[in-house]
Amino acid sequence: MRVVITGAGGLIGTALTRSLRGDGHEVVRLVRRAPVADDEARWDPERGEVDRAGLLGADAVVHLAGAGVGDRRWTASYKRLIRDSRVYGTATLAQALASLEVPPRVLLSASGISYYGDTGSQAVDETAPSGDGFLASVCRDWEAAAEPARRAGVRTVFTRTGLVVSGDGGAWGRRLMPLFRAGLGGRVGHGRQYWSCVSLHDHVAALRHLLDRPELDGPVNVTGPNPVTNQEVTAVMGRVLRRPTLFTAPAPALRLALGDFAEELLASTRVLPSRLLASGFTFAHPTTEDAVRAAAASRS
Prior knowledge:
11 helices; alpha/beta; two-stranded parallel ribbon; Rossmann fold; single chain
């Protein structure tokens, strides 16, 4: 199988590329710079340009590119970058795929569980409507931008991703894990908000699963089946890493440090992967503790 991946240099893209190549599949990476390897092709989402030669013969496309949500303090300009990098990138790719004489069979287009907004203690799945807030609106526009590919007959799946638990990178590996290892971790705000987590291993396995399930299209939640509160996540981190968890990040301090992004950390998103489970997918790390233990072991 020939698979084209955007965002292949990120945490998920790197792991997916390794997994696919390990099973003998061909991977083409779309990059924003001049290609320096045979497996690279250039694209420029801001200009709406894609090297079509890189797309020819593709069986599948996995679109993961987008500015990191938690990489910087949210200013008006960075919020614009978060939206534009997702919407313009998806539109550019979808239009390029639609223009091919023989488009790929499937497009997995990343999205997020922020689509549902703040759900409080209520568990939701793919049947739930979109919620309120900046990231919810971004997710709606992000998914809508893939419409040209869907109209062209490409099976289009929106992978609404939760918090990816990894010791190798991403927000969890770069920020949470070092803090807790240093004994400086603790709950965020009041800690009663739900965090829907998924291990990196299970995320990649879910993407592989979705590539091979022609009956699945539209939204699919890529989260673990047992979401827990931030307070429970904090307890798990302390237990697994054997560190105290006495510190707390108060809401006012988060708002000062992170801007509007603080509201997303304080929001509760209790999301269930109903369609994944119904399709026969099995989680290797079904609980947050399983996921954290796997992440900790990867860094030991």
